[in-house]
Amino acid sequence: MFTKILIANRGEIACRIIKTARAMGVQTVAVYSDADANALHVKMADQAVHIGPSPAADSYLQMDVLIDAAQQTGAQAIHPGYGFLSENPDFAQKIADNGMVFIGPSPESIRQMGLKDRAKELMEIANVPVVPGYHGQNQDPVFLAAEAVKIGYPVLIKARAGGGGKGMRLVENPVDFETLLQSAQREGLASFGDAHVLIEKFIQSPRHIEVQVFGDTHGNVVHLFERDCSMQRRHQKVIEEAPAPNMPVDLRTAMTDAAIKAAKQIDYYGAGTIEFIVDGSGPLRADGFWFMEMNTRLQVEHPVTEAVTGTDLVAWQLHVASGAALPLKQNEITLNGHAFEARIYAEDPTADFKPAPGTLSSLQFNTDARIDTGVETGDVVSPFYDPMIAKITTHADDRQTALNALVDGLQNTFAAGTPTNLGFLSRLATDPDFATAKLDTGLIERKMDTLSSVPNTSDFDLLCAIITTHDIDLNAPHLGWQMWQAPAVNTAFDECGNVSLIINADTITVGETNFTRVIRNADQITATTNNTQHRATTTVAGNTVTIKSAADAKTLTIPAPLDVAAGADENSDQIIAPMTGTVTLVHVDVGDTVTMGDPLVVMEAMKMEHVLTAPRDGTIDQIFCTQSSATSEGTILVTLVEIDA
Ligand code: ADP
To answer: Which structural domains are found in the chain, ordered by start?
Structure first.
């Protein structure tokens, strides 16, 4: 076994590899870009080497820099993780040329499976069923259009070098063929430097089922059963599970046999995944699956396989790379129970899943589920890389129990500071079709409106927000004793305007709702209405408060303090109320000369006094408020003119 390895990656996968290496007594070297100087993988590793500026092209994709770092630290092998250089045959070759080991397959295997057309040719030779279509060399548009007709519409055009759903176009109607062909070619060229395409029959109601394979350098190849990755958005996996639900025994045998044949065809060693597309329009059948592609690396979703087979696939990778035989024989690998994985991202489901980099002001996993993450509270989800926050994996004896655990884990995971897809994942995990395993790759798209619609801010959300931002002590003895006058807290949030919270004897009223048994325990708040208990976790970061309840996470913004806002624009002629409140004092009269920083108006809002100061020197031109005028956000209070005007 190696004594030291370098991990040419970052984030959760780097941390995950470090954990196994440490357990095996193998030292680890992390690498990091400028953006990652304080990243978790750097803290976890035994050593760390800076490899360049933040953009991946200048750091994590710099082969020579990575190889130098490995040599300088005395690492004997390099683990590429997934993404970045993990499927780059030149990197694998260079590592070998420099006398080290690439923890992955041979450069030749990567090359053979790197292009979808070549891979399909090899699979035909190996007698593995491939999706009907054209994957030859002729790229003449007229010829390709004729092939599409032969295959039968709808067809899928795929860039042969494509990945991650890029360079792929569904064509439903022959009149659109030429335009969509050009757009697939353009994307293929722009993203992968290769405009070459293939055409496939589009399988209706497809399921994506993939088989985990593993080979060693002694010629052994085994499979570790299948994963179902049909829950996809724009061809990207969202929730994965193992085994595939409703999998007939004969289909499992046919698929795992085909996967082993595929791996053997290219003398494969290391971890690999054979992806199949399966006809899900009716019950699954042994003749209803076709090879799509092979991924010659460890997959993001490998934890579900680890859960149901009780293996550590990174440990297997290290064994195989160091020349050992596979730890288990085929008949020793068994399938136990059911597992799910969900990918938690910093992205905004209400804005077409736009990546939402930012600082995670709070990140808590209040769950027993397996968590793979590369960030912790206070860390930044960087705009330079994939905005993944964590993967959550659950395992139980049966699908329903594992799914319940997933829902529970998602609902008890708390992230504040950036929008996340946690609410979206919870809604997907509780979707009735998903729950009853009526799966196909179009499910998410069909239900997108429901899945991505965020529930309105509830009175309970507001209750939590006010209690937290005003730090209301629910155990204070005077609470509820002032029967003659219900104490009220009036406040405002940018997202929903004015809100009041009224405390009566044993109820707290917010909006239309009366809450009883309101309990605050650190950052957890519970309250009861109509015999239903609500629960949420809250966190304040800067001028925002995030309330995470079972339904979703809500972030509300406390309007910026007035003195800060008023002083913000030095050239401004106007002093504007930046939040709703009451004017408690006007310091100036029309015609007064003021200098920058002089107090002009005092406002009270959210129980706090805010002084609005002169943004620059000037003469008071007009005053639009008097003491105790109620003022709403955005109102002009005072205007200035130049002193000599
Ligand atoms: P990429 O390499 O870009 O990820 P794949 O070939 O792996 O592309 O396909 C990605 C996804 O696209 C699959 O998981 C499946 O959902 C869908 N897909 C691919 N080929 C077909 C097909 N022939 N018919 C229907 N859907 C397909």
So the answer is: 4-103 (3.40.50.20), 105-131+207-336 (3.30.470.20), 132-201 (3.30.1490.20), 341-454 (3.30.470.20), 459-557 (no CATH), 574-641 (2.40.50.100)
